[in-house]
UniProtKB/TrEMBL annotation:
Pfam families attached to this UniProt entry: FAD_oxidored, Golvesin_C
SUPFAM superfamilies on file: FAD/NAD(P)-binding domain (SSF51905)
Lineage start: Bacteria, Bacillati, Actinomycetota, Actinomycetes, Micromonosporales
Keyword flag Oxidoreductase: yes
Lyase in keyword set: yes
GO molecular function, one term: lyase activity
Alphabetical list of InterPro entries matching this protein: CBD-like_Golvesin-Xly, FAD/NAD-bd_sf, HdrA-like, TAT_signal
Protein name: Xanthan lyase
Classification via PROSITE patterns: TAT
Length: 671
């Protein structure tokens, strides 16, 4: 029967750590029992796993989460505070709620369905939001529980045994881990590595020698500069570069997303045990050849802190050190993660202290340090390795580059993705006697696209009561776009919804009728198509709609993502004052409307675009900066309009200092 369970009372339950508050659907003794049973068991306390359990509880079912590590929240609480959002307006459901709760934490406001979102945050704030969600839903989370075995009956998982002696039994299961261990133990087909371009008719999969995060100056890969007989420096592959587009079993590099600060109380970068400067000889040579950095990013997330990531030819990505990680044992993964810690801490210590590094670079690096109030249990160092890809399921539908580009459209979407097709480098190779990085791909997608329901469930013959929203069925390069924390939350909610519907029907999860699933997803706030259908009192005018008039020449483009409709238009940065474009809505009724404008942002955009809003009270002039706030609705104010077509929004170009973009305008009737 339901009972109120305190977090402190359960800290040592069953030999595992359990985090929960509120009504859980379990008695305290049941949570600590040798065998714990729930309607839904989620493996992986990633953002997607936590959202899945919350969704199941909101649908009236018991749910619990098992996590192999001591860390809750995956990358969302592990340093990735600069959200890879793509088109932020496509993030809805509990994922959108999460980012609204982030905003509320920072601003002390209530959370409502129309609250603003905040996509950048400190790790401890994300953890507080997840704690709130779990507490309100009453979700038990068992930390430090590693799978020892899986028991199946025919094509269904019955229970798992953990290495602490507890067993967990469930009617439905979700593998939300970054590694796909439950999927593997359940006998589901998976793959690791890069497909060839030929496998799925793609163009940017497999081996890719490109210019991103690349050595831009000549650097010798040999121990003795320029002498092949001396052998290769650490991290450089001796395998010859394969033809472009060919497949292999390599995966993109991992790192840690550091939370740094320049505050006086910062923790200086430690010199790790096992530090060896030879690891950084390639970087030193690049610097000596003229590279000046920056050698890591410092994106601000709030509180004077950063989400610091890989940047450039030699940075925090430990290229080539993770190949065995996806299929390794827990102990071996611990060793690989420790090696990544040693490498990355050593890199930061090298940049801040090695006397061969120019003083300006040393001083700049040493001005940063670890935030002392984040990750306090691990000395300010992130506890979550950034597992950018590991196993990927092979299901009835494989998401590919064609889906990302809108050339293929899934008939059964359960969520949208919109981020760039993004692969970090996979190896360092020798090309014409110089070191080169290989594998970096960063290619935008034209618009948010649907992820197939069939891509998050295995083939029924393999497992009928499992969904896999993180290690889903996708090619390497498509996964590079899908593998973002908001998308994992979206898919986690959809996976749990399907699992609960299957449980209610007594069917395999694959047999849930898509119309039934779609209806429930939409009822719970998920967004399944782009552009989304207009809401009550909402009128959107796209640049391609009949309600648009233009003067001069406007050029259609899809080069920068985040636009509304099939494309956006720009003025070519020419004919200033001649080019202008007017959005004219057909308003069904008179009233006060909030007016919004949308564009795609880029450094080459104009920062001073004049906008005229024509309304019943006259014309209001605004100026917008199109170098920022791209891919979202930007408020232009509230105005009174008559019914019909008298109102409008005009984009002008005179005096502008860059490309002017016309994408879409929106009128929303105020209640």
């Amino acid at each position: 029967m339901p009972s109120s369970v305190s977090r402190r009372a359960l800290l040592r339950a069953g030999g595992a750590v359990v985090v929960t508050t509120g009504v859980t659907g379990f008695a305290p003794a049941a949570l600590a029992a040798p065998l714990v049973t729930a309607d839904l068991v989620v493996y992986g306390a990633t953002s997607g796993g936590l959202v899945a359990a919350v969704q199941a509880r909101r649908m009236g079912r018991t749910a619990l989460v098992l996590e192999a590590s001591p860390h809750l929240g995956g990358l969302s609480t592990g340093g990735l505070g600069q959200t890879d959002s793509g088109t932020a307006a496509s993030i809805k459901g509990i994922a959108g709620e999460f980012y609204r709760r982030i905003y509320a934490k920072y601003n002390g406001t209530a959370v409502t369905p129309t609250s603003p979102t905040r996509m950048t945050f400190e790790p401890h704030v994300a953890r507080a939001v997840f704690d709130d969600l779990l507490a309100e839903a009453g979700v038990p989370v068992y930390l430090g529980v590693r799978l020892a075995s899986v028991t199946r009956s025919a094509n269904r998982i019955v229970e798992v045994a953990a290495d602490n002696g507890q067993a967990f039994r469930g009617a439905m299961w979700i593998d939300a881990s970054y590694e796909g261990d439950l999927m593997h133990l359940a006998g589901v087909t998976w793959t690791v590595g890069r497909e060839s371009n030929a496998t799925y008719g793609e163009t940017i999969n497999g081996v890719q020698l490109r210019g991103g995060h690349q050595f831009t100056l000549p650097v010798s890969p040999y121990v003795v500069d320029g002498n092949p007989a001396s052998g290769l420096l650490p991290g450089v592959s001796a395998v010859p570069l394969a033809p472009a587009g060919s497949g292999d079993d390599l995966i993109q590099a991992y790192n840690y997303r550091m939370c740094l600060t320049q505050a006086a109380g910062r923790i200086p970068f430690p010199r790790p045990a096992g530090y060896d400067p030879i690891r950084y000889e390639l970087l030193l040579r690049h610097i000596q050849a003229g590279a000046t950095g920056p050698f890591f990013t410092t994106h601000g997330v709030g509180g004077g802190k950063t989400d610091s990531n890989n940047n450039g030819a030699f940075s925090t990505d430990f290229i080539g050190a993770n190949y065995s990680y996806p299929t390794a044992s827990y102990a071996a993964r611990d060793s690989i993660a420790a090696a990544h810690t040693t490498y990355q801490q050593g890199l930061m210590w090298f940049l801040a202290n090695d006397p061969r590094v120019p003083a300006a670079i040393r001083a700049s690096t040493a001005s940063w340090g670890l935030a002392p109030d984040e990750f306090t249990a691990t000395g300010g160092w992130p506890p979550q390795l950034y597992v950018r890809e590991a196993r990927r399921m092979r299901a009835a539908y494989v998401m590919t580059e064609r889906d990302c580009r809108g050339q293929a459209v899934a008939s059964d979407p359960v969520g949208l993705a919109s981020y760039t097709m993004d692969s970090h480098n996979c190896q360092r190779v020798v090309v014409s006697g110089l070191v080169r990085n290989e594998g970096d791909v960063q290619v935008g997608v034209p618009a948010p696209y649907g992820i197939s329901f069939r891509a998050i469930v295995p083939q029924e013959a393999q497992c009928a009561n499992l969904a896999v929203p993180v290690c889903l069925s996708a090619s390497h390069i498509a996964y590079g776009s899908i593998r973002m924390e908001p998308v994992f939350m979206i898919l986690g909610q959809s996976a749990a919804t399907a699992a609960v519907l299957a449980l209610a029907a007594g069917s395999a999860v694959q047999q849930v009728p898509y119309p039934t699933l779609r209806a429930r997803l939409l009822a719970d706030g998920q967004l399944l198509q782009w552009p989304p259908p207009p809401g009550p009192g909402e009128i959107v005018v796209d640049s391609r709609d009949a309600g648009v008039t233009r003067a001069g020449t406007w050029v259609a483009s899809t080069s920068v993502g985040g636009y509304w409709g099939p494309d956006y238009e720009h003025d070519g940065n020419t004919a200033k004052g001649v080019n202008r474009l007017r959005f004219r809505p057909t308003l069904p009724s008179a009233g006060t409307y909030q007016v919004y404008l949308r564009w795609t942002a880029d450094p080459n955009r104009a920062s001073n675009v004049p906008v005229d809003i024509v309304h019943s009270g006259g014309t209001t002039n605004r100026v917008v900066n199109q170098r920022s706030s791209g891919g979202q609705w930007v408020a232009m104010g509230s105005y009174t309009f008559a019914a019909g077509t008298a109102g409008s929004l005009l984009i002008r170009t005179e005096g502008t200092d860059g490309y002017v973009v016309a994408d879409a305008a929106r009128w929303l009737l105020s209640p």
